[in-house]
């Protein structure tokens, strides 16, 4: 597929740098070589090869450190820090949480020395926020909830302030909504439904703004489904059942539009099925057994059709390998 083709091209580029690179390699050449390795890491991550992705990023980071020694400027640091954030995210996915924290620590300490009110902050705030969000996820996973909440909140506050000061920045919106959602989940777990409601409502608004700013990326719609479901759960806990039902209805409407957009997408269909499950559970809590049963049956029908389609694909694949 496309990722395999990109991987092949990337490997050829790396071979070129191995042959023509050297001890006196120029900064631009080193930067391109590092970028090639990080690109390979991104490709391997997209293919699900996290170990391979980590190895590529770590090799690129070794060059990054050399680049910073040669060119210790803020733009260079911003580029290198993005690579550190990517590596930290992979370590997080691999469950190597202490290593991930160490990756984030040094970079965050650097940005904490800078003044976010200065004019050049626009060049590095998004990088700093990405690092804070990455560390918050690690803290969250290790039950260090106070530290996780502090990082989620700091990232969200910095993104919000920057967005209020200038034009819409998609890169900031991409960090803002999961930071708001992460903080909301922590507050909900602590029993603070007032703050949880505020955070999840803000996350929904941010995703809607992101969809307007980046309408070609359909994936944000799927995130909107999940966040509307979370918002409905908080509203339900607060006793706002009408508002909770409305959020579930909106989530299902988004899921239905996704399936219409791409009827062959199993993920979209599964998302639609889950909105029926959540609505069924909601009706069940309201003692509306008839509505609950209807929703559960709708979910069951979608999931059964998905299983049948997967079985059909598997049969066709096996048949294609039969030789006479």
Give descriptors for this structure:
82% helix; mainly alpha; 13 helices; 324 residues; globular; 0% strand
Kindly describe this structure.
- This protein is mainly alpha-helical and 324 residues long.
- It has 13 helices and no strands.
- It has helices spanning 2-20, 27-46, 50-70, 74-93, 97-112, 125-141, 145-165, 170-189, 193-213, 219-237, 241-261, 266-285, 289-320.
- Helix 7 (145-165) packs antiparallel against helix 8.
- The protein is globular and about 70 Å long.
- 39% of the residues are buried.
Short description:
This protein has 324 residues and is an all-alpha fold.
Topology (elements, then pairings):
Elements: H1 2-20, H2 27-46, H3 50-70, H4 74-93, H5 97-112, H6 125-141, H7 145-165, H8 170-189, H9 193-213, H10 219-237, H11 241-261, H12 266-285, H13 289-320
Q: What's the number of extended β-strand segments?
A: 0
State the distance separating the first and last CA atoms. 28 Å
Number of helices: 13
What pattern of helices and strands is seen along the backbone?
HHHHHHHHHHHHH
Please describe the biggest sheet, giving its number of strands, its sense, and whether it closes into a barrel: none
Mean pLDDT: 89
Strand content: under 5%
Structural class: mainly alpha
Shape descriptor reads globular
pLDDT < 50 runs, ≥5 residues: 9-14, 16-24
Tell me the Rg in angstroms. Answer: 23 Å
- Which percent range fits the helix content? over 70%
């Amino acid at each position: 597929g496309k990722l395999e083709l990109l991987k092949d091209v990337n490997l050829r580029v790396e071979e070129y740098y191995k042959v023509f690179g050297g001890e006196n390699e120029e900064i631009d050449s080193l930067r391109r070589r590092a970028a090639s390795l990080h690109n390979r890491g991104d490709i391997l991550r997209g293919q699900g090869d996290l170990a391979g992705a980590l190895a590529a990023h770590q090799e690129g980071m070794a060059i990054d450190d050399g680049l910073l020694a040669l060119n210790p400027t803020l733009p260079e640091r911003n580029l290198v820090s993005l690579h550190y954030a990517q590596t930290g995210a992979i370590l997080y996915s691999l469950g190597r949480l202490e290593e991930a924290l160490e990756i984030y620590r040094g970079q965050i300490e650097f940005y904490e020395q800078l003044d976010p009110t200065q004019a050049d902050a626009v060049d590095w705030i998004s990088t700093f926020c990405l690092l804070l969000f990455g560390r918050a996820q690690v803290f969250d996973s290790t039950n260090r909830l106070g530290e996780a909440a502090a990082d989620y909140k700091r990232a969200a506050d910095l993104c919000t302030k920057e967005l209020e000061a200038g034009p819409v920045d998609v890169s900031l919106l991409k960090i803002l909504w999961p930071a708001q959602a992460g903080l909301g989940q922590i507050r909900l777990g602590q029993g603070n439904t007032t703050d949880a409601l505020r955070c999840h409502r803000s996350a929904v608004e941010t995703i809607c703004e992101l969809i307007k700013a980046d309408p070609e990326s359909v994936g944000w719609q799927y995130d909107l489904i999940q966040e509307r479901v979370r918002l409905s759960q908080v509203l339900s806990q607060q006793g706002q059942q009408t508002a909770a039902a409305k959020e579930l209805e909106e989530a299902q409407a988004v899921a239905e539009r996704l399936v219409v957009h791409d009827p062959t997408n199993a993920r979209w269909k599964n998302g639609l099925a889950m909105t029926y499950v959540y609505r069924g559970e909601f009706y069940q809590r309201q003692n509306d057994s008839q509505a609950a049963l209807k929703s559960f049956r709708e979910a069951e029908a979608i999931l059964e059709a998905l299983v049948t389609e997967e079985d059909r694909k598997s049969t066709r694949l096996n048949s294609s390998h039969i030789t006479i």
